[in-house]
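Service request form, structural biology core

Requester: graduate student, group of Dr. S.
Request type: structure prediction, single chain
Budget code: on file
Notes: please return the result as structure tokens.

Sequence provided:
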Amino acid sequence: MKALMAIGIIFCCLVGCSSNAQVTNDKEMGQNIQQSFAKKDVNSVDVSKLSDFKWEKGYLFTNKSKKADVEKLVNAPISEEVMKKISAADQMLVFVHEGEVVRYVELPQDFIAHDKKQLEFSFSHSELKFNKNREGKPIKAGDKTLSSEDALTVKSIMKQIQWKKADYSVALDPDVQLTYEGAVYNVRFTSESAELTSKRRGVYGKVTGETAQQLYEILM
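Core staff response, request fulfilled:
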């Protein structure tokens, strides 16, 4: 029960709580899991063999997890702000050691197969099955397919953007075209921002500062 209650710490961490600031998103582990998926005739991954930290229990949350179900699993109330973080992660693996959350891993949509909207596993039973039927659509900058790590970063940025219905002419002269979830976005960079427009979706979005710089470094 202590471990189940302690898993709630990760949600505090994800919304900026400083008391558990050492908990991090293990991007390298996430990339290794995705690389395992790409191998021929590999249908599962033993996450205990890919982790370089101590843990006993693990949990999978998805962006389809319902608030009541999450609260039942963690045995604690969950705020709407926290549920937005879970929804934005697509899939999230959370690892617990001695009653404390020690690491979490973000994965793409429908990456790990599961019967319910969340999954519980342990270090001794840590083999997770891949969903080989998932319709993964590559994220591209021009003709170049992004690496797993860069693709996850772009997905995170795209979900942060406050999209507006707009005329496609806003960004007719792009620096690069971004293919994301089957739609093409024209991306134009300035010294302070990145503007994105999709003719197919009829939307306009903009990011500034460090986020724009991060997008520039990935796409250009």
